[in-house]
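Human: I hope this is not a bother. Would you mind checking the protein record under this note? Thank you for your patience.
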Amino acid sequence: MAERAIWVIGPIAWDTVLYISKLPSSGGFLHAREHQERPGGQAFNVASGIVGAGLPIRLVGALGDDIYAEKLRDAITKESLSVEFIQNLQLPTPHVTILVDDSGERTMVGMEKGLLGDLDIEDLPVQAGDIVVWPFWNDAFLPLFERIREICFLVLGSNALKSDRELSGDILVISNDEIDDQKTLDRALSHFTKIYITDGAHGSKMISKNNNLREAGRIIPIVDTTGAGDAFLTGVVTGQYLGFSEKDILELAATWASLTVQKAHSSPAAWSEVKTFLKLDQVNG
């Protein structure tokens, strides 16, 4: 039997990041203390984290026909990811400006139209037993979702609760900001086996019909929160693939996020760093 794969489907973008003391007031001006150009987008970030653990990853996304597409293809290859399932469109590549203030909080401004609605994924060669991850949901994914929902392990991320359809799957990973009220959470729990919720400094939790777990927030120096949610999702998927318990998955996800926000980058911290911090020497990869 072929080894089961992890498919990560979603945004790939180029990030222009400005580190500033605070957001300028209307009509104001300030100098950034640091400026970075770097690869990003939720799918790229999650895939780059998972591949570091030595797991069989398939990154699926779209790029345009400009200089940013070339930079992102180089970045994908540098991360030991394949471009086999990266589609090339005659459109601008997604480009995001990110303002990170002294608290580490980021404000994001999209500079180009997203390409998820133009992504053709219905015929992806997904196999029974594969884990399929959508870090950011778009209803354009529904044809593939319907085809594989009974045969694959499905993980959905942000924006899934805003779908026009009542989506269902194995795991939902969202931030606490996406939950309007208890009714929203109860409805989500009726459609997903497990829900992992991250809430920044307030910690994180896992909720299922049979279990409720909480991971306390950590007092850490925060440099850049850009990749926090993606790192948390990376931990959930990696732990699930490796057969970790629900408690250990939550700890892994929270640790990955906390290590990530202490550095100035979009992608999750290296697996080797996470593994060393948690003393997971018995885990291969």
User: Anything to note?
Assistant: The longest strand covers residues 13-19. The CA atoms of residues 124 and 144 lie 8 Å apart. The chain has a mean pLDDT of 94.
